[in-house]
Amino acid sequence: MLLEVLTVLRSLFPYSAVFFASLLLLDGCQQSDGVALSRAIAQDSSSSYGYCPVNPSGTGILPDGDFSQGVNYGDHFIEPHKGTVFAPDWMVAKRNIDFNGTTFWNIDGYCSVDLDGNNAGGIVTSAFPTKPGANYTVAFLLSGNGGEGKGNPPVVKTMVMEAAKQFQTFTWDTSNGNDVENGKWAAETWTFRARHVTTTLRITSQDPRQSSRGAVVAAIAVIKSKK
Question: Do 95 and 65 belong to one domain?
Fold first, then answer.
């Protein structure tokens, strides 16, 4: 039904109107419809948008860890709310986030997520297969949004990564221009031990609730450890 509505909107309005209308639909749709709508927008030949870039190193067993099945909004971003599928296999799990195109800023050329949208938020993956007792390493790129914004954003951004009831806290200090706006980022890793045959990965901002500039993540992969 959502795709039929989108088709009608395309025929009646210029793309800019369709874009914003699509976001409103996506914010309130079911997960399966959200995935379909996200792909439909990316495939719209009348737009300048396509898919986010693929990580040439791969994403391991994590589906769409580079967001490459999601829409690349270029130098724009969207601000999806809790329950929204903003890219296939990714959903907003807390409040809201910013999903950024590749040229909105530069984090090694990838699409990225600012965990603080209009408020501090979080994201979660769909379940991926794991072997109980096996160790898995999460590799990703980390930075921080050092821009000014509402809610008096902290200089040091804090987030928690969670999988299989294990947690790891990460911080990023944006002082002295050490931020994503200036192309600053670093590769990070974290290892967890699987407890079940499937696992989800959750990444949540620990900044104050009203913060609108947070930790930024991109190019996420999950790889089974050799030992």
Answer: yes
Under 8 Å between Cβ of 70 and 36:
no
CA separation for the pair 33, 1 (Å, rounded):
8
Task: Give yes or no: residues 89 and 59 share one domain.
Answer: yes
Task: Specify the range with the lowest mean pLDDT, choosing from 1-5, 64-68, 189-193, 211-215.
Answer: 1-5
CB 99 within 8 A of CB 125: no
Same-domain check for residues 68 and 40: no
Write out the two tokens for 84: 């929204």
How confident is the model over 38-52, as pLDDT tens digits? 555 555 533 457 999
Q: Which amino acid is it at 22?
A: S
pLDDT tens digits for 70-112?
A: 999 999 999 999 999 999 999 999 999 999 999 999 999 999 9
57 with 127, same domain? yes
CB atoms within 10 A of CB 203: 26
Our separate counts of H helices and E strands in the chain read 3, 16
Angstrom CA distances, 218 to 13, 33, 139, stand at: 33, 24, 10
- Residue 94 sits in the same domain as residue 26: no
Is pTM beyond 0.85 here? no
Structural domain span for residue 42: 1-48
| SS3 category, 78 | strand
